[in-house]
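User: Here's a protein and a ligand (pyridoxal-5'-phosphate). What would the complex look like?
Assistant: Let me lay out the input and then the predicted complex.
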Amino acid sequence: MSDHLEKRQAPINIDPEKFKQAGHYLVDKIAELLESLPDRSLTQGESPSEIKRILGQGLVPQQGEDVNKLIETTTELLLNHSLFNGHPKFLGYITSSPAPIGMLAELLASAVNPNVGAWLLSPVATEIELQTVGWISEMIGYNSNCGGVLVSGGNMANFVGFLTGLHEKAGLLIREEGMQPAPQRGLCIYASAETHTWIQKAAAFFGIGTNSICWIPTDDNMQMDISLLRQQIEKDKAENLKPIMVIGTAGSVSTGVVDRLDTLANFCQENSLWFHVDGAYGAFAAMLDEQKEVFKGMSNADSIALDPHKWLYAPLEAGCALVRDRKKLAKTFSFHPEYYKFAEVKGEPTISMVDFGLQNSRGFRALKVWLAIKQVGLNGYKKMIAGDIELAKYMFDLIDNHEDFEAKNQNLSITTFRYLPSNLKSDADKKTDLLNSLNRELLTTLQEGGEAFVSNAVIDGNYYLRACIVNFRTTKKDIRELVRIIEDIGSFTRQKI
Ligand SMILES: *Cc1c(COP(=O)(O)O)cnc(C)c1O
């Protein structure tokens, strides 16, 4: 008989004293980590087999282990074998240094564990998420009455905007009939060649197929060529195809370029096209007065994707989708079976986040974003984002004045460049292969070395290095040291190949 169920001691429970011990130990270790970040190796550069060996390859454990010991050994494991994107010299991809308040927020959020799918199950948490979405919209100057939802990242946020646009503009009863009826064959989506790869996943998995994407070339500024867009759409209409959506990018992933959003927004309005802006990386820079011109027109987008886990420095994961007309968002995502008919609370209607996106049960990712906004305020964010952009310019100038580098371009907080020794400068065009492999090898050595981290971009067929600063810990000194580290590795690599 199950007598132990009369007074239950579930093995997963932790008694309060033990919980405190483990928690205090962990918080102490995290504080030490944060303090020591600048002096730590950014990564150990270990191979998959080395890491597998450290983990041990046993079968699923039959018996449990002591909690305190587990927390200790796992803390050691992670602190000694991770890549730290919080390191001040981590400038790779678009991954920010995590805000410490976000770490505390995650602990608190998981302790309360609200299910932010339904208001009834998450009263404060839902209201915090709604407020966070409203603040994000206000920060970038978007419609204060828009609909919005927090999601796991930029891809998911783009999917939400994409799906809403598809349902609004396809002219089909997609919810009822799917993509089955014949006319959908001609649906066309327009995106510049610089658009992030999320658009391919969206087209592939939401039923219209990647052939529906019409790639519009970019001009000399790497912005979507709008005259080519116009021509293409005229041509497609003449062939009885059905243009439905244009994707603008507010901060391209490889070079940080912002499309001419104002012209695109007007063009879409005139032609009844859905205008979605992918601002996963760049949109938060719209809060800066000095960037207002660059982002002009973004406020007229039908939907915008943003990433608080990029330029709001939230720990992973936090993306955000905004849709100008809240009703259209709900029209796309809301279903109300009997078991999800949420009652009013004390006679007031409630909003349930399950109506605004793909997820059902939802975590409380809003808390870390909300707390960080409250901690630093709009002014704090302006200062940090402007600082990141200034550092990218500083880096560009340093490199531009260095005889063994070529500075390629700088937009928002991204700087692209390559190692180009002075004696190769005159005939760099003829030495493309050599320079590409020199820089490729340099980057591998840098990334495995653990002193600093940048990633790469391919521009006009050439291989460039790329620093993206979404890191409130980075200083000018870090940038100077980074350039020196790359110079050293460059001259060493050059002798090798
Ligand atoms: C990062 C990024 C994405 C993807 O966002 P995730 O958060 O990685 O899912 C999409 N578009 C752009 C422009 C990005 O910078």
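Summary: Residues 94, 153-155, 196, 198, 249, 251, 253, 278, 280-281, 307, 319 surround pyridoxal-5'-phosphate (CB under 6 Å).
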